[in-house]
Amino acid sequence: MTYAMHKAGGSGGRQRAFILPRANAEEAALVRDATIFPADTLLQVCAHFAGRSAETRLSRHRSAASQDRPSYPDFADVKGQAQAKRALEVAATGGHSLLMVGPPGTGKSMLAARFPGILPPMTDDEALESAAVQSLTSGYSASRWKMRPYRAPHHTASGVALVGGGSPPRPGEISLAHRGILFLDELPEFDRKVLEVLREPLESGHITISRAARQADFPARFQLVAAMNPCPCGYLGHSANKCRCTPDLVARYQGKISGPLLDRIDMQIQVGALPHEDLLKQADGEPSAAIAERVEHAFERQLARQGKANHALTGAEIDEHCKPDQAAEQLLRTAMTKLNWSARAYHRVLKVARTIADLAGSATITQPHVAEAIQYRRALRDH
Ligand SMILES: [Zn+2]
């Protein structure tokens, strides 16, 4: 027996209460409206039900989980990189997946680690789903309640570690990142087969693990943030360090990320090396709290209009909610032809433009919104 249940608040009360082992009480107390009675022994449980006196009744658990906004690393610590920060703000607002391309030492990991701190706050349901997956492994602590998960597996991680598996099947990094961030640094170094497996959960939000004897379905609604160098040496397009990689080598390197996977990444941005004068400056970034406020406001616009984030809009919903004005549509069509986009890529740019318009408080998608969205799709070779 792991728990007992009884009615609290008299015979007419409809509120449910749980008797649980003391070790699980803190986690269970995260469920709103549930009353928890922690017990150390079965004798205490019997006494609780049989007893009439106050001494034998179990006492109600008081949750220690903080309801304050959780604390994350802050964007205020990041020098320069205004364009990358702007792109991350857009990605956070619309839930868009993002790939950062740039030479080593430009702070791509530092930017990624600060990303969870500007996302819209977790709802109770999201926090419970996340806690439920984490508690399947050893890793849940009630002190992390409502903290967006941030998982950054190394590129040498096995397929099982990344997507889940084993016997009995256990969730992998993509599920532990459910309702949070999966950060894949040095994306081309990951096993290509493993990367291809990401395509399904990126679309569906869950992963099915099949083993000979059993099948398991785990949630995997993560937001992908990835980073990579532009070429094997890392310095392609960088003026100070000369890159000697041949075009062939560059193509092979970038080609490790397949077209279909790239197609599913909404935004691809360049993160440049900091100009020398920026390196000497103190960190002067805008604090995460200020960015988070704009993100939340623009996120609420999306919920009010369509009940979901822009990245999750389906084909028919895109037609309904992402209508560009005439000039914007013309610009988009020109870019599509010139850059040889797939229909999928076209729709992604439109969704990102919708998010940029939401941040600007604009009901209509206009030319500047589309122009910015197009910039977020030009970091790598055309595809
Ligand atoms: Zn190079």
CATH class of the largest domain: Alpha Beta
Number of domains: 3
> Uncertain segments of ≥5 residues (pLDDT<50)?
7-13
**Rg measurement, Å:** 24 Å
Bound molecules: zinc ion
Which CATH architecture of the largest domain is right?
Answer: 3-Layer(aba) Sandwich
SSE-based structural type: alpha/beta
| CATH homology superfamily name of the largest domain | P-loop containing nucleotide triphosphate hydrolases
Main-sheet strand order equals 5-8-11-4-12
Largest sheet: 5 strands, parallel
- Coarse morphology: globular
CATH topology of the largest domain: Rossmann fold
Report helical residue fraction. Answer: 25-40%
Number of continuous helical runs: 17
Protein topology:
Blueprint: E1 4-7, E2 16-21, H1 22-28, E3 35-39, H2 42-50, H3 82-94, E4 98-101, H4 108-114, H5 124-134, E5 150-151, H6 159-163, E6 164-165, E7 170-171, H7 173-176, E8 181-184, H8 192-197, H9 199-204, E9 206-210, E10 215-219, E11 223-228, H10 247-254, H11 259-263, E12 267-270, H12 276-280, H13 288-306, H14 315-321, H15 326-339, H16 343-359, H17 367-375
Parallel strand pairs: 2-3, 4-11, 4-12, 5-8, 8-11
Antiparallel strand pairs: 1-2, 6-7, 9-10
Residues 231-233, 235-236, 243, 245 line the site of zinc ion.
